[in-house]
Every structure is written in structure tokens, then in C-alpha cells.
Amino acid sequence: MSTPSAALREPGRGEVREITLAQAIREALAEEMRRDPRVFVLGEDVAEAGTPFKVLSGLVQEFGSQRVLDTPISEAGFVGIAVGAAMTGMRPVVDIMFGDFLTLAMDQIVNQAAKVHYMSGGKLRVPLVVRTTLGATRRSAAQHSQSLHAWFSHIPGLKVALPSTPYDAKGLLKTAIRDDNPVLFFEDKMMYQVKGPVPEEEYTIPFGVADVKRVGRDVTLVATSSMVYVALEAAQILAQEGIDAEVVDPRTTVPLDVETLVASARKTGRVVVVDEGHRRYGVTAELAAVIAEEAFYDLEAPVRRVGALDVPVPFSPVLEDQTVPTPEQVAAVARELCGRSERDWR
Amino acid sequence: MRQSPVSLAELPEEVRDVPAAEWLRLYRLMATIRAFEEQVNELYVTRRMPGLAHLYIGEEAVAVGVCAALRRDDYITSTHRGHGHCLAKGARVDRMFCELLGKAEGYCRGKGGSMHIADPDSGNLGANAIVGGSTGIATGAALSAKMRGTDQVAVCFFGEGALGQGLLYEVMNMASLWKLPVVYVCENNLYNEYTHYRETTAGDVLARPRAFGIPAEDVDGQDVRAVLAAARRAVARARRGEGPTFLLCNTYRYFGHHVGDVDRSYYRPKDEEEAWKTHRDPLKILREWMVGAGLARPEDFQAAEQAAREEVARGVAYALAAPYPEPREVTLHVYA
Asked: What ipTM was predicted for this assembly?
């Protein structure tokens, strides 16, 4: 996967080192574990194995097996244990290897973690982070490829972060760990080796602040997680046709930076929302509705959505590749919104 | 079932040092829970309480005996049938009623209600309306106590209905592996809602925790002396860092699954209910033993019951007059 230069903006000065998204995650965890003895990691194969994606390699060597805790294959059980630990003074970071396995822990996340603070009239808190993956195209079929972040975005009491760059991943994860609420932190498993500049010095990124990954004036492409790269590639295609696309990354679906999305929509008057969850009742639907409600009189055309095909993710590459949004698809929708066809350009 | 009310041949070793005044305090606490629950039923019948409640009457010795083995800073998690656990761990009657009536001074500012009372000040991490739902939380509190280096213990109360939930077995596995200071207290009141547990539960219940290497014992849940003794053993083991224990407390709920479950003849015979009330009542068992052993006089128990009734009367009057939360509080506490 390419990382267009427009995605690499960050506030550091001078030369900034480049690290992978996996390294950025590991650094965020290590820094927070050094800073706060209450932070610990638990999940399947998180210690010596460092997870199958090797995201956590080295943590157990520094922090020991008491703080990097290998669990049995019991998602409901160890998420429940993390909820209880979070309620009593610890700050657990749970690793759910594949986002698909969140289904096994739904009661603990949705009925317990999300509701404890409210149900107790504000007396109990659940400072819990659940790190997990999303994203298809790894040829892993229907039970290892889903993008389920919309489900959690629907539940009051949960926060949901979807970093798209190493810089964002590190800054958002540190914020997630310091947050006193349960946070679902989705990492696209296809992005772990994506490199980007991350400054050496300490920084955090607040939740609810969208990032404009590319400035443009003709059409807004709102994109989440790895779809930011799809949108940036679409913007390059469109640029060759004289269409100047703006790419806005909400970075967190809850809380949502409505202001930045709407400001961009008002500026360009045309919006395409891109997300890797299923299109039906998905994140694209919510973002499109919010933009339509707030920016209706400034829109030149209806807000359009590009999401994953409403089918289980199939195995065969020939089939799977049709299910996720592509730069060409996004460009085609944007082109249409701008009243152009490919033929016009040619 | 047919044994004499005073069923213990002799007082278990773990509770021989308990003075008469402490037994009387436990009696008073059981009487408070009973009077509280009778009042809850009354509130329901007279339509002054929103929603439903699940009464603990008949099971008082379990909550009172277990919590008497705990410190205030030890943790409990509770269930939909949780009023007894909350009171036994130190909740106040008036604020309990406030919560049941949805009032601002309730333990959860009226946001939780009967099934979600939480009181961190007394170590109560909350009642749970998902059967078995708090087994993870209790086990996590035990992990947290161990990681923070305190010697706190967590007690997980659950009914025998939770034996059907997979979560329980996942967390017992981890509690045993990691030697966590947690006590699993299974209150077997014989019925999963409206179905006898033998229709839902295969094999030997105690064999389940034992399969994880967790010591497990059968406890007469109607005899607070037996419950306290077993709880003291389990809590001491947990504090010593030796890991979890499973207590199967055999008990019975006198009322229905909830206050509205009045016609119960289709799932359990009236004779059975009467037999438990007559022969196996936890207040009667303690009272008859203490009087017989010369530890207290009959009038001491009458005084305790009178005091309990008065506390409940004051508490409910207070709660009925207390204000509701401001409507604007509906969006408060969604996020910390």
C-alpha cells in the first residue's frame, strides 16, 4: 500500500524519522506503560508471540509477564476481567486479535463496559481500551476480515477510534489509554507495515478532531482508516482530470468532529463518504446523514456513499477484491457528483 | 429439608470466636433484608414502584454470612436478585429505596434501579441484570487487587442459573491459572426463573469448579453459621494468595422469580414453599440456636425485628418524599 505524501503531515520540525504503524502502536503502549504503572496489556498471544501481527513484540521483555498477560482463548472472559480491573483502579489495554472476535465479547463491551458509568450514576468508571483489527483483502475469508466499528459507534458510552497513519495511531492510542471511558481502537490489519513520520517527542491527539489529509475545493472525500489511502489515490486520479478533492479523516467516529466535516462540505458542496464497513446501516450512512442535515443548503448534490459490498467477505481474490471500495470507484462517484463523466475528460 | 432447624452438629471451628453480639447483628441484618423486601413487594402491589424487583426473602443467610467475612474495602458483584447483597455489604436502606423509586438520592441517581445498584464506597461494584454478567467483573477486580498488591478479595454472587453461561467457566479458568483472590458464591435457590435447575443443569455442579482445580464445597445456605464459616475459609485462602474458591450455597426463594410472579403452582408445589419456610428459615435457625444455647433471649430477636421494621419504614417514607432527578440529568454520565 502506498502512503501518499499528503497523508504525512505532522507538526514536527525538520527531519522526522519514519516508522511503521505497528511500531507506532508499540511505542504508544510502551510509553504509556512506563508513564503509568496501572496500564497493562492482556489478550491472546500478546507476550512472547507479540501477536500474530508482531505489533507487541518486545513489550513483555521490558514490562514482564505480569503486565503483558497472555490469556486463554476466551474473549468474553478476558474482556470481562479487563472491565472489572478497569473499574477498580487499573487501565487495561485488551488485544482482540481479529475484529471478528469482538462478537464473542459483545455482552462485556456493550452491556457492561459501555453502561457501568451511566448505570452507577457516574460513580464507577471503565478506563478500558480494546485494540482490535478491521479490514479485508488479506485473503482470510468471512470470519477474519470484517470491519465492525459501526456496531460500537452505535452504543452510547463507547468511544471509537480509527487511525489511518502511524502518526495518528500513536497519538490517538495514547489518548485512548488516558481516557476514562471504554474505547474501541480499530487498526486496519493491512496497514501495520505502512510507514510514516512520527516525531520522537511526546504528543497526543485529542478525540473528536478530524484531520484534513488533503486540501481541495471541488469535492470532499470523507474517509476512515485505510480508506483514507483509497480516497487519497482517488484524489490523485481526479486531480489529473482537473477536479480538486479534499480528503477529510474523522479519526474518531465517537466523538465525531461534525464541525470539520460540515465546514468541508459547505466549502466544496459535494461529498462522498468512504468506509470499509458494510454500506447498509453503516458508518457511511451516519456520516452522510450528519452532513446532509447540517450542510443541506450548501450542497450542490446529494451526499454519496461508498462502503463494503453487503456480502460476507469471500475468500477467492477474484471475489474478495470486489467487496472493498477502490480508488477508481471513489473517483467515479466523485466525478459524477461534479457533473462529469470519464468521457468528458477524455 | 426434613432435618431439624438447628442442623449443625456443632459450631464450625472458623466461627467459634464469634460473640453473641455479632450473631445478633447478623440476625438484625437478615431481619432488615426481609423487612426491606416485604416493603418492596408492598410498593409493587400498591403500584408506587416503577418496574419490577426480584426478592431475596429466604436467601438472607447467604448474603449476610458471606459479607460478614469481608472487609468494607473488599469487593462484591451482585445479581438481579441483589438487594440482600447490597444491604449486607453496607448499603443504606433509605438510599436503596431512593434508587428503587428512581429518585435523585438513590445509589445510582435513579439511573440504575433495582437491578443495578452499585455502591463503590462499600465495595459493591454493582448488581447485574445479565445472568452471569458480573463474573468477569468480579474476577477482574480480583486481578486488579493482586496487581495493585492489596490483599482485597472479590466475591462474585450469582444464581444457579448462571451455571448455564459460558463466561463463568472462562473466568474460573483464568482465576485458577492466575490464583486470583476471588470467591464464587453460587446461590442455588433451585429455580432458573420458572424452571427447576435439574432440568437445565447436567452432572454434578461441584465437579465444574473442581475441574479447574478450584476447591468447591456445598454449604447450607439457610444457616448463617455455616455460610460464615465457609466464607471465612474461602476469604482467608484468597487473602493468603492461594486463589479462588467456589461455594455452592443451597437456598430457596420464598417469593416468585419477581414480584409479579404470584401464581407459581405450574412450576413448584405450594408444599415445597411451606416446608422451606417452616423448617429451613434462616432467621428461625439462628434464633432457635441462640435461644437454645443461652446466647440470647426471645425478646432480643423481637427487638431486632422491630428495629429493622422501623428502619425500613423510615427509609421508605424518606424515599417516597425524596425528589426525582432533574430531567436534564438524562444526558449526564454517558461519558466520564
From this structure: 0.96
